[in-house]
């Protein structure tokens, strides 16, 4: 498979690094380009066998699959410039707010398009991605998307209408968790812990708890109950979380971010 990457920023580079590390494609079978030549060269410095080309019009005819990792405002002219190509690749977009209909309209009626939403932990191989395929994309195309996105974390295929909810939860979610980690660390400092120890304790506690949910496949409430002794420290802390509305605050954050994603897409 010949893979193309248009956009060598943080997310595009993270995806490609994961794909190469997983051995899904060889570096010499990857073409890359970016509006900023230095971004492409930085990626090539890490993987010298990558092929750097000048622009999307040169890249697309040579690739079987192209990851679109550019800013949303740049998607339309890029695809329209490639719409007349005799050989159209599978387009895998990670641009927020760009719908399948827009991707299809701009790339041509026969083009195969997939819209996806990864999140920033993909940069360390711990991401979550969801994707939806266009009407002309095949099951094989969906498997390609699953493999590529799965190289940097967990992945699910969903109906397109759910991608805004994915954006509100996992796309924006790392920022919520960073805020929780900061607050937990501040609580530790309040109770006398050194700042660096408090931050490590908070971050590792979040990492460990999250991994337990994934590895055990148990409901978070069951795992919570297992560490909540009658009259103990944990139930005292949970009482305060409920009193001050942590659960509702997170619910409303996901709701508001989802609504904002819909506004941007509309």
Describe this protein's structure:
The protein is of the alpha/beta class. The chain has two domains: 157 residues, NAD(P)-binding Rossmann-like Domain (Rossmann fold, 3-Layer(aba) Sandwich), CATH 3.40.50.720; 95 residues, ProC C-terminal domain-like (ProC C-terminal domain-like fold). Helix content is 54%, strand content 14%. It has twelve helices and eight strands. Strands 3-2-1-4-5-6-7-8 form an eight-stranded mixed β-sheet, with helices on both faces. Helix 2 links the parallel strand 2 and strand 3. The relative contact order is 0.09. The mean pLDDT is 95.
Q: Which percent bin holds the helix content?
A: 40-55%
- Principal-axes geometry comes out as elongated
Arithmetic mean of pLDDT: 95
Q: CATH superfamily assignment of the largest domain?
A: NAD(P)-binding Rossmann-like Domain
Distance between termini?
Answer: 35 Å
Can you tell me the CATH topology of the largest domain? Rossmann fold
User: Which CATH class of the largest domain?
Assistant: Alpha Beta
Order of helices and strands: EHEHEHEHEHEEHEHHHHHH
CA gyration radius, whole angstroms: 21 Å
